[in-house]
Amino acid sequence: MPYSQFNIDRVKQDFHLNTVEGVRFFPDSIEPITPSLRLQGILEDLPWAIAVDTEKARSEAIINPILLEVRRIFNSTISVFSGEEFNVDASIGLNGVCDFLLCRSPEQLTVEAPAIVIVEAKKSDLKSGLGQCIAEMVAAQRFNQAREQPLTAVYGTVSSGTQWRFLKLEGQTVTIDLMDYSLPPIESILSFLVWMVKAG
């Protein structure tokens, strides 16, 4: 069963997870990050991605450029994977493709531990992507443990490009911030993603 087959009930049941809803886990002190001129230029095509309104257009024109900006902020010391096979344990459904995966390794040829942020792209209904994102976060948690690089928390986000909802997996507890953060503005979204990379 690939990641896409998981809904929230199934992922909670299969992996014995508890959920905490509506809690913001970002500190209030996060400073907004001004995007580079390069990213500002790319995001001028935002109306095109919204008009076309497919998951692929939103992923390519909005989400991927933002994640590559995060990689530039970290001077390419992290990796960003797009549409990558992430097969951790097919016997329990932790297999399939992640829309986006960030790892704390500069290597881009293969996924290296620790995996720190999962990004699941959806055309519109963010709730429909939560179960899938959580399953991918569980996979990242187990991937890191198997490679002896466990993290305190693995982070995730489900995004349409213009709306972002954030999650945190710590042990068996998933915290889901039920606030949908809008883009624009880009400054807050960038600061949240950078904070997750540092905090993971």
Explain this structure:
- Strands 1, 2, 3, 4, 5, 6, 7 and 8 form an eight-stranded mixed sheet that branches.
- This protein has 200 residues and is α+β, with helices and mostly antiparallel strands.
- A hairpin with a 2-residue loop joins strand 6 (163-170) and strand 7 (173-176).
- It starts with 7 loop residues before the first helix and ends with a helix.
- It is built from six helices and eight strands; from the N terminus they run H-E-H-H-H-E-E-E-H-E-E-E-E-H.
- Helix 1 runs parallel beside helix 5 and helix 3 packs antiparallel against helix 4 (55-73).
- It has helices at 8-15, 37-42, 46-52, 55-73, 130-146, 186-199; strands at 18-21, 79-85, 97-103, 115-121, 154-159, 163-170, 173-176, 181-182.
DSSP summary: helix tally:
6
pLDDT average, as an integer? 95
CA radius of gyration = 16 Å
Shape: globular
Structural class designation: alpha+beta
Q: Span from first to last CA? A: 27 Å
Helix-strand pattern: HEHHHEEEHEEEEH
Which blocks of ≥5 consecutive residues have pLDDT under 50? Answer: none
The strand count comes to 8
Bin the strand percentage: 15-25%
Helical content class: 25-40%
Sketch the major β-sheet: 8 strands, mixed
